[in-house]
From TrEMBL:
<keyword id="KW-0547">Nucleotide-binding</keyword>
<keyword id="KW-0067">ATP-binding</keyword>
<dbReference type="GO" id="GO:0005524">
    <property type="term" value="F:ATP binding"/>
</dbReference>
<dbReference type="Pfam" id="PF01071">
    <property type="entry name" value="GARS_A"/>
</dbReference>
<dbReference type="InterPro" id="IPR020561">
    <property type="entry name" value="PRibGlycinamid_synth_ATP-grasp"/>
</dbReference>
<dbReference type="GO" id="GO:0016874">
    <property type="term" value="F:ligase activity"/>
</dbReference>
<keyword id="KW-0436">Ligase</keyword>
<dbReference type="InterPro" id="IPR052032">
    <property type="entry name" value="ATP-dep_AA_Ligase"/>
</dbReference>
<dbReference type="InterPro" id="IPR040570">
    <property type="entry name" value="LAL_C2"/>
</dbReference>
<protein>
    <submittedName>
        <fullName>Phosphoribosylglycinamide synthetase</fullName>
    </submittedName>
</protein>
<dbReference type="InterPro" id="IPR013815">
    <property type="entry name" value="ATP_grasp_subdomain_1"/>
</dbReference>
<dbReference type="GO" id="GO:0046872">
    <property type="term" value="F:metal ion binding"/>
</dbReference>
<feature type="domain" description="ATP-grasp">
    <location>
        <begin position="111"/>
        <end position="303"/>
    </location>
</feature>
<dbReference type="InterPro" id="IPR011761">
    <property type="entry name" value="ATP-grasp"/>
</dbReference>
<dbReference type="Pfam" id="PF18603">
    <property type="entry name" value="LAL_C2"/>
</dbReference>
Amino acid sequence: MDKNKRLLVLGAGRGQVGLIKTAKDMGVVTVVGTMPNNNPPGISLSDEVCYMDISNPDDVLSKAKGLNLNGIATCCLDTGVTSLGRSCEQLDLIGLKENAAVLCQDKLKMKTALMESGISTAKFFKVSSEEELSKSLENIMLPVIIKATDLQGSKGIYIAHTKQEAYEGYRSAMLDTKREYCIVEEFIEGWEFGAQSFVYDGEVLFVMPHGDDTFMSHTAIPVGHFVPIKCSEDILSQAEECVRGAIKALDLNNCAVNVDLIVKDGKVYIIELTGRVGANCLPELVSINFGINYYQMIVAMAIGDNPKEIWEKRDKETSAGLAKMLFSEKDTGILKKIEYTGSFDEEVLEVTFFKKPGDEIRAFNNSNDCIGQVIVRGNTYEECEMKIKQIENDIILQLW
């Protein structure tokens, strides 16, 4: 590998830390693109900083032209995906195309593309007024989900069990979104799980289903992930078929892929997917499962090297892993003390705190309220779960 290759990482928050560290370990010069505020952790880790609005494709492209780049990458957030697509396409760099990125970023366009390709997904309608919502509710049985189409994670999503709640959810979603519409879709109640995938030069290298631990706030919010999942071979087969079909429907290529799925009455449905690796320790779980550094694959592809050379070195047998976010379910206050008093070994991979004494701790409502994260590996899920519980017992947390 050419040690002088330059990589622009879109974003400098905690989700990009692993990507930045890995790129530097690979001898790649890292440039983080971020706004000039909040002092995110990626700034101090990177070789260079270029201030930009990663949600603005024109701004990112303009800045990227002057950086002498070999590649652009992002992970764990959707904010820069469209900008990445445009810049990669315009600068002839390896990465997903802008049109595919746009499909990922707009839930309406995404679901339309899935429906047109025959991929199983929830029935939905576009609504831009309460009158349109009323008509839609004549064609979808309650409960329903109201979704802003341009937000990531669990933001702008509201479950409604009554018509009144549907109207309230619509008003809330329209306040959340920057668009003039949202969608209302049937609420498929079932077992939710996820999958990570990777597409290089038109080839899907893997589909890795993973379990999701969720916390119910205004909707179910992922607070942990694990591999492997326990389900039938039929469900695994359906999931693989759905993921591969959805990747083709959105024309995703040269990117990591994050997918949300759900099973109802033995049938797998796609909730949504996007052309970047998932958040909340999912890159680390891919690494644990296959015995590779998944960030290396993302970096290698972005800078023009062949990620299959890393993939081909994966372990013959997969491993179990569990990652969990640390948060306060009900208590709020100012953090007085936080400390892990346990030990680290080859199976306790990470105990990280995002908050420090003096920071505000809020009862959990979204991922921004997370206090920290824990990652372990083991022979089985049950073994990993026991390790997590021990770690939680060894954490001292005091609030004012």
